[in-house]
């Protein structure tokens, strides 16, 4: 796989446009001056986590005796729970945070940007061709950079969609996320059963 192909794949899995309504929902009660700082901080956390997982993810999973199938199954469960909160909003919002409470690492950096799907993809890339690890690192930075630009202009999308539009998009993304989560869970389960058999 070429660097640009890998970058596009990672960008699509990160899905910054799909995550935008959720992030706007999370930041809705935060002071406008503080929002941009939080967004930059969480995006930087996500980049560090992605690079750490690319370079050391396989060793970490081996040390913990955790298989890639387990990453896929647990990731599917987490995404499913987030999707349920998107479709059926609660007072604490998608994240369960109190109004005005700042997110820290979870859920913006993990699992929204550095999600289980992206981490699993990085594991696959590093396993397929370990000699090109720096190419994959560059692909991660390209995908992250494109996501960074889109998410930094969240105010433009907020003005275009409005509050009702954001709620509608959030519920639609929740439905799509349930399908992705279920597929991720089933893929992990299928691989686990294949290995077990």
UniProtKB/TrEMBL annotation:
Matching InterPro entries: Multi_antbiot-R_MarC
Pfam families hit by this protein: MarC
Entry GO CC: plasma membrane
Chain segments annotated as transmembrane: 6-27, 39-57, 63-84, 104-124, 136-157, 169-186
Membrane topology annotation: Multi-pass membrane protein
Main localization (coarse): membrane
Places the protein is found: Cell membrane
Domain of life: Bacteria
Cross-referenced NCBIfam families: PRK10739.1
Family recorded in the similarity comment: Belongs to the UPF0056 (MarC) family.
Protein name per UniProt: UPF0056 membrane protein
Keywords recorded for this protein, A-Z: Cell membrane, Membrane, Transmembrane, Transmembrane helix
